[in-house]
Every structure is written in structure tokens, then in C-alpha cells.
Amino acid sequence: MMNGEYKHRIDSVIRYIEENGSQKLTLEDLARAANFSKYHFSRIFTAMTGVTPVAFLNRKRLEKSVRLLGETNMTVLAIAGECGFESLSAYHALFKKHYGTTPNEMRKARTQYSNISQWTSNMPEETASGTAYNENRKRSLLGRTWDRMIAIKELTPLNVAYVRHVGSYLDTGAAWDKLGRWAYERGITPPSEHFIGISLDDAGLVDEYACRYDACVTLPEDWTPDSADPQVQFKSLSGGMYAVYPFYDTIDKFVLAYQNVFGLWLPNSGYEADDRPCLEFCLNDPARDPEGKCRVDLYVPIKK
Is 239:158 a contact under the CB 8 Å cutoff? Predict the structure, then answer.
């Protein structure tokens, strides 16, 4: 079953983290160790383990530092370097966040807290063990329901005009307003053309207010770019095979669409994520929806 293959690859990256956590590791390094697309690796890892790759890596580094604090006389500075932290201040901040104390305070109290597991178990739910995914997970009724909901489609390359938004994915309205006015002035409207959103960053890895989002509209085949507005730009979107998941709910819950596709459907599907961005085909205007909901077809790039 495909889920077993995904589990094997997640196990591989977990072993890689455990063996190389003291080195400087990038998401590209971890994606390569798991043989996943670097563009979608974080979403897959998080969906299957319940924790982001960065949080899991930091957890392993913190656990090692706790052992060194209790078992050696190394300085805190040396321990920070040995465990792969970029600076002493970064180590202190993360240590304090997760354990509620400083490394020196923990070391002073080591006789009182000789059981290291008491400290290492004091982790928030976000950084639960990488074995949080169910090794024997079967294809439940819910899983089969997702299979029936998701369609596989071949998409031809698309030329689009777009306006880029940088900030929270919940605040893309201004970009859509600008693009919408530009498009309607030129008669570029549904149903002949489509509005597409592209979330370029994983909000679990990038600060909310640094996330990049492109509000796009497809262009007729014979369209010649004519915009004098520097905020309206043009590009081509790659075609190829996509898994299409229909979503209808409030925009703040749209993250669940990604979670469902990457966590529930994809590992059991016989496909894996391809190294292209997801496309969010916007099928309605939430401001005009009776319930204030958005209707979106989420296109996830896949390959066999």
C-alpha cells in the first residue's frame, strides 16, 4: 500500500535528522533525504507526523542538549554548537520556550531532576514525537470518501496576469480588487477565463506577514500584455497532472484542504506531489455568497 512507502520515506528523513542534527540542515537537505519534492515536503511531513520538519529537528536538538547538560561538563556555549544551534541566543530562546527554564538553571537543578525524561517529555503538543503518525493506519471510510471526491485532471499550460500580495493569506482582498478591476475593464471575465490564487509559501515555515500570494486571472490565447500598471504582471503556469479537491467553506478553514489532501489522500493514492505550486481555482466571490464562504477547486500537482 502506498502509505507504507510514504512511511518508509518519512522514517528515512527522521533517521537522517537523528544522525545529522548537529549539522546545518536545510529543508532541501531533508526533502532530498526523503526523496520528496522540496516544494511540498514540509506539508507532507507535517501531515504525516503532526509536527513541522523544523520543529521536529529542534526537538531532537533540544533533547540532545538536555542529555549533554546532565552528563557532561561542557559549557552551554559548546553544547549549543554541538547540537547544531546557530547561536547561543537562539538556543536559549528555544530552550526557554519549550522547557520554561534556561540551560544553566536546568543544569543546576540536575540532581533534583535526575530523570531526564521528565524534562524531555515536557514538550508542547506541536513537537510530539515523529512516530505520532499511525504505523498501521488503514484506509478508513473517510479515506475512501476523499478518493471519490478527488478527480485527476490534466491541465494545459496557462498564461496569466497577476497581482502579488505579501502578508497574511487571510488579507488578499486588496490584490484581488486590483486584479478584478484590471480584468473587467478588459473583458477578461468568467466563464471563459478563470481566477486562480497561488500560495507561494508554506505558512507553517514562513512568517505570516512574509507569505507571498499571487492573485491571477487566465488570459485569452491571443492576448497581448498591455498593462501600464506596474502591479499587474504576467507569467505562465506549468501544465501537467493535478489532483483536484473541491472546497466550500470560510476562507480561514482553507488550510484544512491542504491538510486533507497531503495528509489523508496523497499517501494512499499511488501518486506523489510534483515540484510545482498548487493552484487555487476561485469559483465564487465570498462577499456575495449567502454564507460568506468561498468555493475553490484546489489543484495539487502530482506524478506517478
Answer: yes
